[in-house]
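Thanks for the sequence, V.! I ran protein-serine/threonine phosphatase right away. Repeating your input here for the record:
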Amino acid sequence: MCRRAIVTPNNEIYVGNAGDSRAVLSEDGVAIPMSDDHKPTNPGESKRITEAGGFVDIGRVNGNLALSRALGDFEFKKNTNLSVEKQIVTGIWDCLKSQEVISFIRKNIAEHKDLKRACEDLMERCLSKTNEVSIGTDNMTIIIVGFLHNKTETEWYKWMASRYGVKGFKYKEDIFEVDLEINYGDYDDSVNFSVDSDNNSNNNSDDEKEDLTLEM
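Predicted structure:
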């Protein structure tokens, strides 16, 4: 899987991806998709695979590859009668939905954890606890980009933490997590995060958009 993202001087974000990687933008705690997954079970991807002589079994290309577009995997690109874009394969998200990931990261920030720790906790949350082939046994990578908007890093963390439970959606522990007895702690609604009044006028207004980008 592969993804690339750039931010222009005009604050425009462009994202390109291949495979089952995904880019998600959090705006005020709401997940906004920035890319489309290339999964073998998607109707368009499945159609191309079968027309190229392949098949989809247990959600995998020829029962093997879990993504339908990739760099490499040349054994799926050997049909000399087809153009590159029509080959069987042309180029975390099984565990949690985009909104759940956004809410999970924001919850970690509200618990005074930095982005590095938030990444580690998310990987731990998604990692399978058995050696059997199942959800959470594949390799996983995450990159989190926080847009400071002229704040210092400390100001940004305080500002983000103060908005959890006010803007967007809270993370809800699900049955899968309870069954694995993973305890990430509970968010305390009574926690009061102080914000410097001098920064309220231009940096910390409630009307200011909150941006957080995740690439996985």
